Amino acid sequence: MTTTIETADAVVVGSRCSGCAASIALARAGRKVVALDRATFPSDTLSTHLLFAGGVSEIRALGALERVEAAGAPRAPAAFMAAKELEVTAGYTRTSEGIDYGMSVRRPALDMALVETAREAGAEIREKTKVTDLVWEGDRVVGVKAKAYDGEPYEIHAPLVVGADGRKSLVARLVGVEEPYRQNPNKRACVFAYWEDARPEWRPIMAQWREGEELGTAFPCDGGLVLVLLMPPIEDGPEYRADPEAAYLRGVDKIPALRERLRGCTLASKVRISTDHAAYFRRSSGKGWALPGDAGHFKDPVTAQGIRDALRYGRRLGERAAPHLDDRAALDRALRAWEHERETECIEIYQWTNLLARAEALNPVEEELYREMATGHGLAKPMLDVFSRIKQPHEALPAHLATRMALRAIARPGRRAEAAKIAVRELKLDVAARAERRAVRRAG
Ligand SMILES: Cc1cc2nc3c(=O)[nH]c(=O)nc-3n(C[C@H](O)[C@H](O)[C@H](O)COP(=O)(O)OP(=O)(O)OC[C@H]3O[C@@H](n4cnc5c(N)ncnc54)[C@H](O)[C@@H]3O)c2cc1C
Predict the structure, then answer these.
(1) Taking the model in full, what pTM does it have?
(2) What are the pLDDT digits (tens) for 196-205?
(3) What is the 328 CA–ligand 1 centroid distance (Å)?
């Protein structure tokens, strides 16, 4: 039997955030793009979906914002954080795309809006189609083998294969880069469910509370719902798995302010759990292939950056690759440059996320940071700018300010010895992180 062989300029494996973003950019540049996904759309995937203003900006940059907003999620111009008695509220700095609000749109609607935008741009999105293997020409990837659920196997040959196929990426495995070169184990689980939201005054606010080691969030979203995510220490995972709903409701009760936020609200969905989400960077480009989105790089959900980065670096990949698809050497150079751009831009937020992902109770130095933000001395907005990716963490919290927080923590009676120990630990981590960032910059 002869195998049918199709040709395209680019074939994309996976068509959610990063796959659609790459497809949109390639199609807009006039390239023939085929994106294959084993899923059908609209459909859900294991992910919460908070977007800070930087994430909403990426949706606008793709031309998908109108469709996404049609889902009906409220705009959230304010972010709220609380720990102990300290409460911080901040508004957004307007992004370069003119966005000054966050949003939380459930994945079926969000991903469907992206798929429709990609189709409108001219990309072909094939659902219910599984990619099973790559096609090689020597050491170069030149296509994929695919099979529709109800069809015969076939091949698509293309100068560029984009692996936008998520954390368990088949493409990463087949090109031999599955093992990350940089990784960090997750210390918190994610346990979440949707509630009918009975608190209109909270609808424009994305909120997070810390209580001891517990961390809970409430993100108002489409459908009149609020997504309530708990991030308990990973050791509590088995308890949550044993009886998800009972453990989840107990988890909510451990955070009284969250419990109060949910007054009058009713649990409206199953409880979903993720305990396996280590952070990493994988090698993400090579001869004829690239890995945007989670396939190449993942951060703990605690800072909610994944969708934003999948969209941004999917788009950037398409923009960088599109002019070079007829010249293999130039294409490989463009892919390497794209990978370096992503790593350089993401390394610091990755390091920062790893710090926030430690399942520890608020330490005395963090407490000073909260105190400074809560007293309205102008630190809250720059810190929110970090989550919106307008500022890098070291710009929002420069060394002199971090040192002042540490010294204040040490000077405060009660937890002096602990504060001094934490300050030394954080200083050592900061020195190592700066060295790692320098090495990443130099590697370009
Ligand atoms: C618990 C959890 C909570 C999160 N919360 C947030 C949050 O609040 N905010 C945020 O910004 N990010 C969050 N993230 C991260 C976010 O989900 C991801 O960064 C984002 O979905 C990555 O998009 P992607 O397109 O790269 O991959 P995915 O969304 O994983 O899409 C991959 C696609 O590839 C398809 N596919 C895979 N293999 C094949 C194959 N062989 N053939 C055909 N198709 C294939 C799949 O069907 C899927 O549709 C969270 C993640 C987790 C795990």
Answers:
(1) 0.98
(2) 999 999 999 9
(3) 29
